[in-house]
Amino acid sequence: MNIREAHREDWESIWPIFHEIVKAGETYAYDPATTIDQAEKIWLDAPRKTFVFEENGEVLGTYYVKTNQAGPGSHVCNCGYMVASKARGRGLATTMCEHSQKVASELGYKAMQFNFVASSNEGGVRLWSKLGFEIVGRLPTAFNHPVKGLVDALVMYKWLQT
């Protein structure tokens, strides 16, 4: 298992993971009809850094780190994580989140914030909480889950400096 910075040529391996997750509409607030070109801009161009999780040369997960807000808020980063369905339940998200916190600190960020976590994403909320993130805000009925309907979106935050 290896986490490394993504390169442009990795997009071919990242896209199926991104497409599967976004098309499902259950965890990310991206349009399920996001095109491959739009997705590449979102996942590779907009972030400060993007990483892939590989096993035997196969990309099984990916994450990005980007500045959450400009100016006075630029010391807080935001991250997004995606794991291929065939690799879920093996701890990849935990490994990527722990890795991202180290990377964020190395990049000079003092905190990490997840802006819009669907409350219905119980596994994600449980994992982020276990890794020290606190729910600091709740946006009532802000996420429209394709099966559960309107659910709350959570803002989760962790101070990275000790």
Could you provide a short overview of the structure?
With 162 residues, the protein is α+β, with helices and mostly antiparallel strands.
Fold blueprint:
Layout: E1 2-5, H1 11-24, H2 36-45, E2 49-55, E3 58-67, E4 76-83, H3 92-106, E5 111-118, H4 122-130, E6 134-145, E7 149-159
Parallel strand pairs: 4-5
Antiparallel strand pairs: 1-2, 2-3, 3-4, 5-7, 6-7
How does this structure look, described?
The protein is of the alpha+beta class and 162 residues long. It has a single domain (2-159), classed as Aminopeptidase. Helix content is 30%, strand content 37%. It is built from 4 helices and 7 strands, in the order βααβββαβαββ. The chain has helices spanning 11-24, 36-45, 92-106, 122-130, and strands spanning 2-5, 49-55, 58-67, 76-83, 111-118, 134-145, 149-159. The protein has a 7-stranded mixed β-sheet with strand order 1-2-3-4-5-7-6. Helix 1 (11-24) crosses helix 2. The longest helix is centred in the middle third of the chain and has 15 residues, at 92-106. It is globular, with a radius of gyration of 15 Å. The relative contact order is 0.15. The model has no long low-confidence stretch (mean pLDDT 96).
